[in-house]
Amino acid sequence: MSTKNQISIDIPQSVIDKVIENLQESRTLLAPYLQGLTPQERKSLFKMGDKTVATVQKVKDYVETNPEFAPSYMDKEEFLKDETVVTTLSPLGNLADQLASDISDTIILAGSEALAAALFYYGTTKEAAERGIATACPIYDDLKQRFVQKSRRFPPKTE
Predict the structure, then answer these.
(1) pLDDT digits (tens, 9 = 90+) for 41-53
(2) Res 149 pLDDT > 80
(3) What is d(CA 11, CA 15) in angstroms, rounded to the nearest whole number?
(4) Is 4 buried (19+), middle (13-18) or exposed (0-12) by CB count in 10 A?
(5) Domain extent listing, the chain
(6) 68-99 b/e (C-beta count within 10 Å ≥ 16 → b)
(7) CB-hemisphere CA count at 13 Å for 67?
C-alpha cells in the first residue's frame, strides 16, 4: 500500500450546495424535453456514433438543399427536429460526462487513500490488541468484523 498522498482537498459545503442547486435547476429546465428509456428500449434502438453523427448532419444539409430526394414516407420536419436535438444536447451530454468522470476519478482517488489509511489504522490496532493493549481490543474487535475473509475455495464441481 502506498502512503503517497495524491489528493488533499476540502470542498466547502457552500460549493457542494451551489453545485447541487445548479444541477437540479438544469435538470428541471430540461425535464420537459428529455425522454427516459428502459434498458430493453436502449438495446433495440439504432445508436449514433461519431461517424453516424456526421452522416446524419450531411443528410440534413442535403434534405434542406435537395428536398426532392426525400422519400414521401420520410417526415422531413421530424427528421430536422431530431437532428437539432442531437446537435443541441450533445455538448451538454459531453459536459455532463466530463463532470461525471472527474467526480468519479476524484472519489476513486480519495477513496483509495482513505481506505489505505483505514487499513493502516486497522493493522496497528490489530497489532496493539495482539500485544495486549487493553484500549485497542474493543476497537480491533469492532473493526475485525469488517475484514472477515471469505474462503477462496471454489465449491466442488458436480458431475
Answers:
(1) 999 999 998 889 9
(2) no
(3) 7
(4) exposed
(5) 49-147
(6) eeeeeeeeeeeeeeebeeeeeeeeeeeeeeee
(7) 9
Q: 132-136, 148-152, 153-157 — which is least confidently predicted?
A: 153-157
Give exposure, 120-133, as e/b (b: 16+ Cβ within 10 Å).
eebeebbebbeeee
Centre a 10 Å sphere on the Cβ of residue 19 and count the other Cβ atoms it contains: 13
Distance separating alpha carbons of residues 105 and 110, to the nearest angstrom: 9
Between CA 129 and CA 139 the distance in angstroms is 9
Residue type for position 41: E
C-alpha cell at 26: 438544469
Task: Give the pLDDT confidence of 97-145 residue by residue, as tens digits.
Answer: 999 999 999 999 999 999 999 999 999 999 999 999 999 999 999 999 9
Q: Residue 76 — pLDDT band, cuts 50, 70, 90?
A: very high
Half-sphere exposure of 93 (CA within 13 A, CB side): 7
Asked if residues 147 and 119 have their Cβ atoms less than 8 Å apart, the reply is no
Q: Which grid coordinates are listed for 114?
A: 482513505
